[in-house]
Amino acid sequence: MNDIEKELEQIQTEAEMAEFHKNYLSKTGKLTMMMAGLKDLPASERAEAGKRYNELKRAIESQFFKKQASLRAKAVNEKLKNDPLIDITIPAIKKTQGSLHPITHLTRRVAEICSSMGFLVVDGNEVVTEFENFDAVNIPADHPARDMQDTFWLTNGKLLKTQTSALQHEILKKHGPVVSAIFPGRCYRNEATDASHEFSFFQCEGMMVGENISIANLIYVMKTILSQIFGREIEVRLRPGFFPFVEPGFELDGSCPFCGGKGCSVCKHSGWIELGGCGMIHENVLKMADVNPEQYQGFAFGFGLTRLAMMQYAINDVRLLNSGNLEFLRGIKR
Ligand code: PHE
Q1: How far apart are CA 168 and CA 281, in angstroms?
Q2: Tens-place pLDDT, residues 95-145
Q3: Is 204's C-beta closer than 6 angstroms to any atom of ligand 1?
Q4: SS3 for 118?
Q5: Which of 93, 111, 181, 204 would you call most buried, defined as having the most Cβ atoms within 10 angstroms of its Cβ?
Q6: What is the pLDDT at residue 145?
Q7: How many whole angstroms from 309 Cα to the centroid of ligand 1?
Q8: Cβ neighbours of 188 (radius 10 Å)
Q9: How far is ligand 1, taken at its centre, from the CA of residue 25, in Å?
Q10: Top CATH class, 102-330
Q11: What is the model's pTM?
Q12: Pocket of ligand 1 contains residue 303 by CB under 6 Å
């Protein structure tokens, strides 16, 4: 052991450590200066001396850091032992890492896919006006379609949105008449719950408005989004469907992502899965948002994000998603 190492070994305090660092390892320390001196040696000795110097420096540095860590640990332990406010006999809290809720995960995925296709991703209110949820999407006061969606009314006359379509009007007014947007969000319906019904669930609405937008565009966009979500080619099928805010309106089916359309238990052997509704935006909806239907057209679609998440993660009871049950959430494989 050389003198420097002996000196290091005898150190007892952090202050002495700092002093040692200054004397030997800092920019002006002796070891660093030795390095600078190497250049004055004859060339024949320089390589060998450099090698020895490096070995020495590395050895001392490594001992220095070891010693520093052990002195620090000693100091912390002393403090813990003597601090009356710290009880080191209490068992440690086990830390577990959290993760994104499956709905959040899926929503982000859909947002990523759609924004890469040029769609705005809009976040809307959960409390909306009667006008936004119903009148602005062509469901007048006496229209029976209002009864299709049991509503949670608030005492101030507003309501918890029953469908993401409640944001169509605001988005058209703000970004129209040429706009492509999706608006995923939570919806509420006042209904009894069971394994496949919840009073609160997530939908994702989308809209594309501009000149010369057609059903062909709708089919292409739906096919692309769904294929990206499921990571395989999905076929899209439209069946006639009634929604007051679209004309013509369709029920939207996708070929079963699990069996590729051959038939399996998920698609009840039909090869198809119901995903939501869609259609060409009704001219009344456009007019109410000051968009001229003679010049601009567009499509809208809405699919159940909750339903999609249940399919993707094989969740058999929708209520689990709102349960806050960590065992369930940990069990989900992404
Ligand atoms: N808002 C409809 C629903 O909740 C879905 C839909 C959206 C249908 C857009 C057509 C167009 O069922």
Answers
A1: 10
A2: 777 889 999 999 999 999 999 999 999 999 999 999 999 999 999 888 876
A3: no
A4: coil
A5: 204
A6: 67
A7: 18
A8: 20
A9: 71
A10: alpha beta
A11: 0.72
A12: no
